[in-house]
Design brief:
The complex is a heterodimer of chains A (about 210) and B (about 475). Chain A has about 210 residues and is α/β, with parallel strands linked by helices. A 7-stranded mixed beta sheet of chain A has the order 4-3-2-1-5-6-7. Chain A has 8 helices and 7 strands. Chain A is globular and about 65 Å long. Chain B is an alpha/beta fold. In chain B, the strands form 5 sheets. In chain B, strands 5-4-3-6-7 form a 5-stranded parallel beta sheet, with helices on one face. Chain B has a 5-stranded parallel beta sheet with strand order 17-16-15-18-19. The chains are: A alpha/beta (about 210), B alpha/beta (about 475). The interface between A and B is large, with 59 and 75 residues. Bound molecules: iron/sulfur cluster.
Chain lengths: ~210, ~475
């Protein structure tokens, strides 16, 4: 399947430094699966009490948190300020965002490891200028229903009023998302080169292979 | 030549340059723990792929493990399953694994260097962002996510984009009782938590050269809190001395050849950096974070900043509310509930010695509900017990625990209850990091120790003078 067009309600998170502890707290990292994290996205902000992976108790939501309000609850595009995804390397943060049903995260900037994890999972990250973000966040908070349409191929976002914003994204990132590629398979095309590098190193730096 | 240390290690490991500005980089060492690996092993199984080089791997359990009553096993079935999953994966693939009960078990970033698995000039990865720690031994080390863990297992490589070079030069002597933890907190306070994003940071200057490897590791460890994935320091005599007699070092047959290579591991005199910042170590006081990001940091003799000095008002007010603090409060007036000395930032023998110096002959203040010391590894624990440090701590009223990540992230039973306030030697003060609604203040081991005795923050310099 080709993923090129994304469209949906915007969920504004009006802050810098949204860290991965906030996106998914540690108690859920005990899972050995990649799925099922959606209910725990932004857990500490979303509910009035904590939970564990094996608890089945229905929890009371914190009605002041954005994800608990309509229409944000069914949003598909998360938008925040600078340094989104900082902190722990937990890929569970990306899985939680995707498991919840969010396809795109827009921010002023992203932390490095989070970017890489997103790339690996085909979660689309878009960086925009602070002013543009500020505008979208403010309008979304005012008008609540606010739908963006994103065309990855032409690197273009259409606002509800028809206004266009262009963005730029790495070709490899784009290709990765559109074609849903298997990175390991791509790398293994260079198997022979890896092997010959290794045998050279066995000569040059034998101690690295000394414990074999 | 004008290459940086980063350039050199990069070039040495570059197999090919890809079309998309990434390069295929060979990975020498892969450290594994229970939390970020199960899905990676599962991915291998699904695709029926083999592990490329088992001998490059070292596995242990740390994040999730109990630090008390280990003989009783793990009560929480979810944690137990995660640890059993790692145990089974290691067995199945024949990997070097230090399980609970083995004296070599410990926090992955403590045991790597301690066992000599981390060596100069290596590329080293782990599914954990504090992998930057290992850069103190002149190895290019960085954290990766689970997909990358799987990628390294299957290919021994990663496709990476080269980062820019950032040099942080620190000169001058640290004052007595000021540690490398204070230095790195001070640096993060200045350059910010995204100041290093997109860079590899090399630390240089006379202050760094004078530090022990353990103190250097504390700095490299927290490099990720400045936004850079790797922190590096050049190889020198101190590195050489530290490595001596570590278990997994090159054999006698190859040692001289290895040493010759290691001695090249420094930036050239004319190396070109994209960015350079300089710091003076002599004017740094003990640091305490007051907020929910490591950059929110002041000296212990200062006050909580007031609104005039802050750009993002909304975040500032949120932070103070979360932390339960008022503007202009004296840091020394902040009372604490718990004390945590541990984590991959500050749980090595030197850290414990510093804390013990402060604690010796004193008693933990009555308002402190719990004060725990969690050594970074079984070997650190054994060494500390040899030196009698455990007795000093226990007599003062601290709990002496088994090695693991513990209250650094509170995945096991060691965590903060809502609204509890903790002086912690760990590296992150994010909301909920040490427990839901818990309040974290990051400090050095000796500052945490002084806070335990006083019941509130106190300048450890004064504490030691008055002692
Ligand atoms: S001690 Fe803390 S920071 Fe270090 S590896 Fe463990 S959880 Fe991560």
């Amino acid at each position: 399947m080709k993923n090129k067009l994304f469209s949906g309600q915007v969920i504004p998170i009006n802050r810098d430094n949204v860290d991965t502890d906030l996106i998914i707290p540690k108690q859920y990292l005990k899972s050995i699966k990649k799925s099922g994290f959606g209910p725990y996205l932004f857990d500490s902000l979303r509910y009035n009490e904590t939970a564990t992976l094996d608890s089945t108790k229905e929890r009371e939501e914190d009605s002041s948190f954005i994800l608990n309000k309509t229409p944000y609850r069914n949003g598909k595009i998360l938008i925040a300020k600078a340094n989104f995804g900082c902190g722990s390397s937990r890929e569970h943060a990306v899985w939680a965002i995707q498991n919840y049903g969010i396809d795109v995260v827009i921010a002023e900037s992203f932390a490095d490891i989070f970017s890489r994890n997103s790339f690996k999972n085909g979660l689309l990250l878009i960086s925009l200028d602070a002013q543009v973000i500020e505008d979208i966040i403010n309008t979304t908070l005012k008008e609540s229903e606010y739908i963006l349409s994103i065309d990855l191929e032409s690197e273009n976002i259409t606002k509800p009023n028809g206004e266009q914003i262009s963005f730029s994204i790495d070709d490899s990132y784009k290709d990765r998302i559109i074609n849903n590629l298997d990175d390991i398979e791509l790398t293994l095309r260079f198997k022979d080169e890896i092997k010959s590098y290794e045998s050279k190193m066995r000569q040059n730096k034998p101690w690295l292979f000394g414990n074999e | 030549m004008n290459n940086t240390l980063y350039d050199k290690i990069w070039d040495e490991h570059c197999i090919r340059n890809n079309d998309d500005k990434t390069s295929l980089i060979y990975i020498d060492r892969h450290l594994i723990h229970e939390v970020t690996s199960p899905q990676a092993f599962d991915g291998l199984d699904i695709k029926q792929r083999d592990i490329w080089n088992q001998h490059s791997i070292l596995a242990t359990t740390d994040h999730n493990v109990p630090t008390i009553n280990r003989d009783k096993g793990i009560a929480d079935p979810v944690s137990k399953l995660q640890i059993e999953t790692l145990r089974n994966n290691c067995k199945k693939h024949n990997l070097q694994f230090y399980d609970l009960g083995n004296v070599k078990q410990g926090i992955v970033h403590v045991i790597g260097p301690e066992l000599g698995m981390t060596q100069p000039g290596m590329t080293l990865v782990c599914g954990d962002s504090h992998t930057s720690t290992h850069g103190a031994l002149a190895s290019l080390a960085f954290g990766i996510g689970t997909s990358d863990v799987e990628h390294v297992l299957a290919t021994q490589c990663l496709n990476l984009k080269k980062e820019k070079n950032f040099k942080i030069e620190v000169n001058g002597s640290l004052n007595p009782h000021i540690t490398s933890k204070d230095l790195i907190l001070h640096i993060i306070g200045k350059i910010g938590t995204s100041g290093g994003t997109g860079y590899t940071i090399e630390y240089a200057g006379s202050t760094i050269a004078d530090l022990s490897i353990e103190s250097r590791m504390t700095i490299c460890n927290m490099t990720i809190e400045a936004g850079a994935k790797s922190g590096l320091m050049s190889f020198d005599q101190t590195t050489h001395d530290y490595l001596k007699d570590r278990e997994f070092l090159p054999s006698a047959k190859h040692y001289d050849q290895a040493l010759k290579y290691w001695e090249t591991l420094k930036s050239d005199d004319n190396a070109v950096f994209d960015r350079v910042e300089k710091f003076d170590a002599s004017d740094i006081d003990p640091q305490v974070t007051w907020g929910t990001s490591p950059e929110m940091v002041v000296s212990v003799d200062d006050k909580i900043p007031n609104a005039d000095s802050i750009n993002n008002q909304e975040e500032y007010l949120d932070t103070l509310k979360y932390m339960g603090l008022e503007p202009d409060t004296e840091i020394k007036a902040i009372h604490l509930d718990k004390i945590f000395i541990g984590s991959c930032t500050n749980s090595r023998i030197e850290d414990l010695r510093q804390a013990a110096d402060v604690v010796k002959g004193e008693k933990v203040s009555s308002n402190i509900k719990q004060a725990i010391i969690v050594p970074g590894s079984g070997l650190v624990k054994a060494q500390a017990e040899n030196e009698g440090l455990d007795k000093i701590f226990i007599q003062a009223g601290f709990e002496w625990r088994d090695p693991g990540c513990s209250m650094c992230l509170g995945m096991n039973d060691d965590f903060l209850e809502p609204y509890e306030r903790c002086a912690s030697t760990s590296n992150r003060n994010f909301q909920g990091r040490q427990g839901d609604k818990g309040r974290t203040h990051l400090v050095s081991p000796s500052m945490a120790a002084a806070a335990a005795i006083k019941g509130h923050f106190y300048n450890v310099k004064d504490f030691m003078n008055e002692k």
